[in-house]
């Protein structure tokens, strides 16, 4: 995975769920380092909180969509699900 900067995350450069989840994991690794300056750790933590909240919202949307699909008796078997959540985000 290519390394993304905080500026790319803020500008919407990281659009798909997996990239943002990977960035969150990277931030967690950075924060755990003992030699990271406090201001960098704080910035990484803040970015991580924003990413975690956005990912949580995305998961809620996905869960709601799955629940609708599972409870829907009118959905055609060959009907493609609407995955706009993964297209262009943030």
Which helices and strands occur, and which strands form pairs?
Layout: H1 6-10, H2 17-32, H3 38-71
Helix pairs in contact: 2-3
> Segments where pLDDT lies below 50 for 5+ residues?
1-14
Series of H and E elements: HHH
Counted by DSSP, the helix tally is 3
Radius of gyration: 17 Å
- Which CATH architecture of the domain at 12-70? Orthogonal Bundle
- Fraction of residues in helix: 55-70%
Q: How many beta-strand segments?
A: 0
Mean pLDDT: 79
Intertermini distance: 19 Å
According to CATH, what is the topology of the domain at 12-70? Helix Hairpins
User: Class of the domain at 12-70 in CATH?
Assistant: Mainly Alpha
Shape: elongated
Strand content: under 5%
What kind of sheet is the major sheet?
Answer: none
Describe this structure in words.
This protein has 90 residues and is mainly alpha-helical. It has a domain at 12-70: Helix Hairpins. The protein has helices at residues 6-10, 17-32, 38-71. It is elongated. The protein starts with 5 loop residues before the first helix and ends in a 19-residue tail after the last helix.
Which key phrases capture this entry?
90 residues, 3 helices, Helix Hairpins, disordered N terminus, 0% strand, mainly alpha, elongated
Give a summary of the structure in a few sentences:
Helix content is 61%, strand content 0%. It is mostly helical and 90 residues long.
């Amino acid at each position: 995975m290519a390394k993304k900067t905080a500026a790319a995350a803020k500008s919407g450069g990281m659009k798909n769920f997996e990239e943002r989840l990977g960035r969150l994991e990277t931030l967690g690794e950075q924060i755990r380092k003992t030699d990271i300056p406090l201001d960098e750790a704080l910035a990484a933590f803040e970015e991580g909180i924003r990413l975690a909240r956005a990912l949580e919202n995305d998961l809620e949307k996905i869960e709601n969509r799955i629940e609708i699909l599972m409870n829907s008796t009118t959905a055609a078997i060959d009907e493609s699900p609407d995955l706009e959540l993964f297209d262009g985000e943030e």
